[in-house]
Design goal:
By secondary structure, the chain is of the alpha/beta class. The protein has one domain: FAD/NAD(P)-binding domain, CATH 3.50.50. It has 12 helices and 18 strands. The strands form 3 sheets. Strands 1, 2, 8, 9, 10, 11, 17 and 18 form an 8-stranded mixed beta sheet that branches. Helix 2 links the parallel strand 1 and strand 2. Helix 2 runs parallel beside helix 7 and helix 4 crosses helix 11. The longest helix is centred in the N-terminal third of the chain and has 24 residues. Bound molecules: flavin-adenine dinucleotide. The site of flavin-adenine dinucleotide has 45 residues, from helix 2, strand 12, strand 16 and helix 11.
Length: 427
């Protein structure tokens, strides 16, 4: 049956019940204030509390409200565009390899946290696939594989015949597999991190948009909707949802609204032919195509951002077209859920870490790869707030550089992503 009106965010329908985190009320003091309740902020808060810091987390809505509760759930221990050698070229041998180590270990960090804190989020660590959608992409795939293999990552190459077995689709020319990757139910993971942070001693407040931040007597004063928090240090983890409170930070990234689609539950006989090893998959398209199955046998898929007007209708139609080509075994795929989230892109497609004045730090711009990396960067910021010297961090502090003509950059980036989609559709 094709529902007349698709339902919204699938993950809100398949997550375990969660407590409602109350708003900050009155006056409160803390060692560290964390602003933003996604993977970055929640991981930072959890690791701060485990390191002994009195920590308060303020989230505008409820934990997982942002991209962390709306994404495809693919846990990927690799860069979206770059290879490990690029990190060395950009940051030097020692720093670059430290960043590579953090990225390589990031999926294990996620799955270890899930096990340690018994987080209910349908976690599957069976590996992540990146198959080549064109034969010419195999050279790039080989380079990724070889560079990660040289650093000891559990990776392997496969040819077109094996790609067909692994994906259940005849369209791929081969690819590489990262064994430590996998997938999770992302809202369940966000909520589980919030629960773990609270159990570790963090005061988690939802419904607490931070509306003003000032310096007062050597401390930070954060004014939220219902109360005031004073803290020695502040971690900003607002990513693509960064508003006008921090305009310079907001203007360092390009926020792109991306539409997400989930099919109806496929019949068992069809579901078991698609990604039979239950891998996550993001292919080599310029306008990336990512999909995985959820625990019930739906295909959950996301694609590059398109123009916002009419995006739902176009995305639904293009998903059905793609599924018809990639998986002819699904007869008449039907869409059951459609929702949106904001991806924070940086021009270099790497997250940026900033040290602002007076112990305020921030990280954002995961460019669509923030589940594993956001968790790792959140931990890194906690370590920094707990006293780790800046020169020992994996991600070097970057100067805060708002993109020139930011208001024009956003529509330009959308046009570019539309162009990539059009070019990919001709492959
Ligand atoms: C459609 C889609 C698919 C994706 N798929 C994948 C994937 O498969 N794999 C992957 O690795 N990554 C994926 N990503 C990227 C990933 O979801 C993000 O990189 C990651 O969730 C970023 O986490 P975060 O904590 O930094 O930000 P967010 O989760 O966006 O959290 C920021 C939070 O800050 C809060 N906030 C903002 N302003 C304030 C304020 N003033 N006061 C208090 N709170 C505030 C917001 O409400 C929000 O909850 C995808 C993203 C999208 C949108």
């Amino acid at each position: 049956m094709h529902p007349a009106e698709p339902k919204s965010n699938l993950w809100t329908h398949t997550s375990a019940p969660t407590p409602h985190y109350p708003a900050l009320q009155g006056e409160r003091r803390a060692d560290v204030a964390v602003v933003g309740g996604g993977f970055t902020g929640l991981s930072a808060a959890l690791h701060l509390a485990m390191g002994g810091a009195d920590t308060v987390l303020l989230e505008s809505e409820q934990p997982g409200f942002g991209a962390s509760g709306r994404n495809n759930g693919q846990v990927i221990p690799a860069y979206s565009r770059h290879n490990p050698d690029d990190a060395v070229a950009a940051f030097g041998e020692e720093r670059g390899e430290r960043l590579n180590e953090m990225v390589a270990a990031s999926a294990d960090l996620v799955f270890d946290l899930i096990r340690k804190h018994e987080i209910e989020c349908d976690a599957v660590q069976n590996g992540w696939l990146q198959p080549a959608h064109r034969a010419s992409r195999m050279r790039g795939v080989r380079a990724k594989h070889d560079q990660w293999a040289a650093r000891g990552a559990p990776v392997e190459m496969y040819d077109a015949a094996r790609a067909a077995e692994l994906t259940g689709s005849p369209i791929y020319h081969g690819g590489w597999l990262h064994r430590s990757g996998g997938h999770i139910q992302p809202l369940g993971y966000s909520r589980g991190l919030a629960r773990a942070a609270q159990a570790a001693g963090v005061a988690v407040h939802g419904d607490s948009p931070v509306q003003a931040v000032d310096r007062e007597g050597g401390q930070w004063r954060l004014k939220a909707a219902g109360g005031v928090l004073r803290a020695d240090k502040v971690i900003l983890a607002t990513n693509g949802y960064t508003g006008n409170l921090f305009p310079n930070l907001r203007q360092t990234i390009v926020p792109l609204r991306s539409t997400h689609v989930a099919t109806t539950v496929l019949g068992d006989n069809v579901a078991k032919t698609i990604l039979p090893g239950d891998h996550g998959l993001s292919d080599t398209r310029q306008a990336l195509w990512a999909f995985r199955k959820d625990r019930f046998g739906r295909i959950v898929t996301t694609s590059a951002p398109v123009f916002t007007a009419g995006a739902r209708g176009r995305m639904t139609a293009s998903t059905i077209r793609r599924l018809n080509i990639a998986f002819p075994q699904i007869e008449q795929p039907q869409v059951e859920y459609v929702w949106e989230g904001i991806i924070a892109m940086t021009p270099e497609r790497l997250p940026r870490y900033h040290e602002l004045a007076g112990g305020m730090i921030a990280a954002l711009g995961y460019s669509g790869r923030g589940i594993a990396l956001g968790t790792a960067v959140g931990r890194m910021m906690a370590q920094r707030a707990l006293g780790l010297p800046a020169n020992e961090l994996a991600l070097p502090p970057a100067p805060l550089k708002p993109l020139p003509m930011h208001d024009l950059v956003v529509p330009l980036a959308r046009t570019l992503s539309w162009y990539f989609r059009w070019r990919d559709s001709r492959d």
